[in-house]
Design a protein that fits this description.
Helix content: 55-70%
Number of strands: 5
Radius of gyration: 35 Å
Number of helices: 15
Strand content: 5-15%
Distance between the termini: 53 Å
Structural class: alpha/beta
Bound molecules: fe (ii) ion
Order of helices and strands: EHEHEHEHEHHHHHHHHHHH
Largest sheet: 5 strands, parallel
Strand order of the largest sheet: 2-1-3-4-5
Shape: rod-shaped
Amino acid sequence: MPNTSGMRCLIVDDEPRLRRVLMRLLEGEGFTCAEAGSGLEALQELAQRPAPLVISDLRMPEMDGVSLLREIVVRWPDTAVIVVTAVAEVESAVACLQMGALDYVAKPFHLEEVRARVSQALDKRRLLIENRSYQKNLEERVEVQARRIEELFLEGVHALVFALEAKDAYTRGHSMRVANYSVEIARALKLDTDLVETIALGAELHDVGKIGVSESVLHKAGKLSADEYRHIMEHTVIGARILGPLMRDAPGALSIVRSHHERLDGRGFPDGLEGDAIPFEARVVSVADAFDAMTSVRPYRPSLSVEQAIHELEHGKSVQFDPAVVDAFCQAFVGNLALPIPTPQLQPLRLPTPAMEARRA
Ligand SMILES: [Fe+2]
C-alpha cells in the first residue's frame, strides 16, 4: 500500500453498515474517511473538501454511482474512484471502468481484496498524475522553445535589415512601401491571410541581398553599364543565399527574394523564369517594386508621375508583369481614376513567424 497516512477517502453507500465496514478498514490503513449516503451528498462533500480516493456504491437513491462518477471525472480528474457492485452488475462495473473509474469491487467483498484494489487504484492514480504533469511540462517546454526559435529568426532578419539600412538609406523606405503596396494587391486578389503575411515578409526583405552589392555601383549617379546592372541584379541571388538558412520554413517569402526581378517573358533575373514558372508571390511583389521604383527619385534619374508609372505597368502587362496583379494594383490604389495614389503609411515590420509559414506549407 502506498503511503496513505492522513489521505482523505470518501465512502459513498446508502447502507450505513457497509460504510462503517469500509471506513474501519481504510482508517486502519491510515486514511481519514468521510462518508455520504448518496451521489448528491458525495458531490456536496467533494465540493467542500476534495478527496484523492472515492469508493462508491452504484445503486443509491437521489444520484446513483454512475452519475456521480461522471461528475467526478469532469470536476476532479485527479480523484481515484473505485465502484462497489453486486455480482450481477458486472456490466455496469465495466461501463464505469470505461468512464474513468480505476477499479471495481464486487459485493460481497473480502477486506483483503478491497485493500489490494485500493492500493492498485492509488498506484494508477499516481502514475496518471505524473504522466499528465510530464506531458504538460513537455508541452510547455516545446512552446518555450518554439517561441525562442521565432525570436531568433526575427532577430536574425532584423539584423540584416538594419545592416542594409546602414548601407543604403533608400532601401528601408522602399522596402516598407513595397510591402504595403504588395499587401494591398494581395488583399485585392482576396488571398488568404497566411499568404498575405508571406508576401509582406518577402516584400520587406526582397532587397536584403543589396548588402552584397558594391556601394559604388549601388550609389552610382550615372547610367549603369551592362556589367554593373548584372552586378546589381545579383542581389536576388545573394539575398536568397543569405536568408536561405534562416528561412527554411518560409519558402514562399524566400522565393520573393530570389524571383522579384523575373519577367513574364523570361528575360528577367536571375533564372529567366517564364510566366507561371515565376512564383506567384514574386509576381505580386514585382509589380509593387516596379511601381515604387518608378515613382521614387533615384541617384541616376528623376521619378515618374503616378500616371506615367501606371501607364508603364499597363504597358508591361503580360510582358514583364502578371496582368491580374497589375489589375489588382490598379483596383487597390487607383479605383475609378481616383488619383493620386495614396502613399501607404509606413508601419513597423510585420514579420510572420516560421510557424506561420509552416502552417501555410
Ligand atoms: Fe530588387
